[in-house]
Design a protein that fits this description.
With 374 residues, the chain is α/β, with parallel strands linked by helices. The protein folds into 2 domains: 185 residues, Rossmann fold (3-Layer(aba) Sandwich); 184 residues, Glycogen Phosphorylase B (Rossmann fold, 3-Layer(aba) Sandwich). Helix content is 41%, strand content 17%. It contains 17 helices and 13 strands. The strands form 2 sheets. A 7-stranded parallel β-sheet has the order 3-2-1-4-5-6-7, sandwiched between helices. A 6-stranded parallel β-sheet has the order 10-9-8-11-12-13, with helices on both faces. The chain is globular and about 65 Å long.
């Protein structure tokens, strides 16, 4: 079976969607598919080879095609639409006479023109679009729609999409790469972090809906023996986040780190936090954070916001769930996890057992089986 994956993204990129797309391409390749990843020509300051950057096998091809990338200019919204439109047109002509069993994408705009010609398009949906009119044709014409949460499936059904062509497939993790055999002390030595502190760790972007700020605020309510560390974020976001939290002493904001180092940072921690805000729809119902699965593999206790999207994977048996956007609840849970080692050990063991079904390879096989049985 041949699959063409269309992705209107910079590759490599420091953003999480790049990891998810490339890891799924590798997993589809490992599942026996012949795969070509079609990406857009974009300005990119990251010059490293894509396969080396993400640490994936060279079991798929990457094809870069034309798009007019004006996004670095000062009119981001207009430039974004110009870039997206030119890429969509390029994709249409590139695939006009090209044969594939499946044309797959996370971007319904890139599939729009193809929906008039091809009957084998598959859409993977991570958020619900604001402008439904533009995307509804792709929803209707797709052979299948892959969503990452039950709530997204429910919403599609309400919009008139046949439930039988919708598959819920949460995000995943490379279990082997995150289940590294290294002690907390060894990991801290390797990453140059203090041995004499309790470390509360967060990995990922610093967007408001991710809840990073409330975790930073918790640092003022914890003792000086506790260090909160943030790993991740774009250069501009990290700079702004540092300026906003300049008054906090027991805070370490490290910025973006190579993806290959994240398993080691997770192993340095005493507690891992997923503090998503409940104020936005994407956070409450649509997200399936890759960091959640990475946390589960790392064998460290997890504190997470009690939201419907998170509860699809986490529960009281494998995590400490707290009221979202509550500084008091988050702080008390951190103290509980650090103090009650027996309880922390119990939930981390359960989390590690539960995450075994969420590997990228199992996700790819689940999708392939669904498409074959369609």
């Amino acid at each position: 079976m041949k699959l063409i994956y269309i992705a209107n993204i910079r590759v490599p990129t420091e953003k999480a969607h790049g990891i998810q797309i490339v890891k799924m391409c590798e997993a589809f390749g490992n599942s026996g598919l012949k795969l070509e990843l079609v990406i857009s020509w974009r300005f990119n300051e990251i010059k490293e080879d894509t396969f080396n950057f993400y640490g994936v096998k060279r079991n798929f091809k990457i094809k870069k095609i034309f798009s007019l990338d004006l996004i670095p200019l000062s009119i981001p919204k207009i430039c974004f639409w110009i870039q997206s439109l030119t890429f969509s047109i390029s994709v249409f002509f590139y695939l006009l006479f090209k044969k594939a069993d499946i044309i797959y994408s996370r971007d319904s705009f890139s599939l729009y023109l193809l929906s008039f010609l091809k009957r084998n398009i598959v859409l993977e949906l991570h958020t619900f679009p604001k402008n439904l009119l533009l995307h509804k044709r792709v929803f209707k014409k797709s052979k299948a729609i892959i969503v990452i949460t039950d709530k997204l499936k429910e919403l599609l059904i309400k919009k008139g999409i046949n439930k039988n062509k919708i598959l819920v497939a949460p995000d995943g993790v490379d279990i082997e790469k995150f289940n590294i055999d290294i002690s907390k002390e060894e990991a801290r030595k390797k990453m140059n972090l203090p041995q004499d502190k309790k470390i509360v760790l967060y990995t990922g972007h610093l967007y408001e809906w991710k809840g990073a700020q409330i975790l930073a605020d918790a640092s003022k309510l914890l003792d000086n023996n506790t260090l909160i560390i943030f790993v991740g974020g774009t250069e501009n976001d990290v700079k702004e986040f540092k300026n906003r939290n300049i008054d906090k002493n027991n805070l370490l904001i490290l910025g973006h780190k190579p993806y290959s180092e994240i398993p080691y940072y997770l192993k340095t921690s005493d507690v891992l936090v997923l503090p998503n805000s409940g104020k936005t729809e994407i956070s409450r119902n649509w997200t399936s954070p890759m960091k959640m699965f990475e946390y589960m593999v790392s064998k460290r206790p997890i504190i997470a916001s009690d939201l419907p999207s998170i509860r699809e994977i986490l529960n009281e048996n494998n995590a400490i769930l707290v009221k979202s956007d509550s500084l008091e609840a988050l702080t008390q849970s951190i103290k509980q996890a650090l103090k009650n080692q027996a309880f922390s050990d119990k939930i981390l063991i359960q989390a590690y057992q539960d995450v075994q079904k969420y590997s990228w390879i199992k996700r790819s096989k689940k999708i392939i089986n669904f498409l074959n049985n369609d």
